[in-house]
Design a protein that fits this description.
82% of the residues lie in helices and 0% in strands. By secondary structure, it is mainly α. It has one domain. The longest helix is centred in the first third of the chain and has 32 residues. The relative contact order is 0.08. The mean pLDDT is 87. Keywords: Membrane, Transmembrane, Transmembrane helix.
Length: 98
C-alpha cells in the first residue's frame, strides 16, 4: 500500500473543492434555466438570495471543517450533516414540511 504525497493530496483536494463549488453553481443556475421553459418555476431575487446564502454558507462551513480536521471519515460525517441540514431547511422553506 502506498502513501500519498503532500502534492497528491493537494491535487485531490483541489478536485473536490472545484466539484463542490461547481455543484453549488449548477444548483443555483438550475431554477434560472427552468424559468425560461416553464411557468411552474417562479423564483424571484429573494429566492435566489436565500438559496445562495444557504448553499454558499454550507459550502464555507464544509471548507472550514475540511481545514480543521484531517480525517476523511470526519469530513464525510460533517459533509453528511451539512447536506442533511441544507435539505431539511430547503424542504421546510419550499413547502413547510416541519
Amino acid at each position: 500500500m502506498t502513501s500519498l504525497t503532500r502534492m497528491e493530496i493537494g491535487r485531490v483536494g483541489r478536485f473536490w473543492r472545484v466539484g463542490l463549488w461547481g455543484l453549488i453553481v449548477v444548483l443555483l443556475l438550475t431554477p434560472l434555466v427552468a424559468m425560461q421553459f416553464t411557468r411552474e418555476v417562479a423564483w424571484d431575487g429573494a429566492d435566489f438570495a436565500f438559496a445562495g446564502l444557504l448553499l454558499v454558507g454550507a459550502g464555507l462551513l464544509f471548507e472550514l471543517a475540511a481545514r480543521v480536521t484531517r480525517s476523511v471519515m470526519w469530513r464525510m460525517a460533517i459533509g453528511a450533516v451539512l447536506l442533511l441540514g441544507v435539505l431539511v431547511i430547503w424542504a421546510d422553506a419550499a413547502v413547510g414540511v416541519f
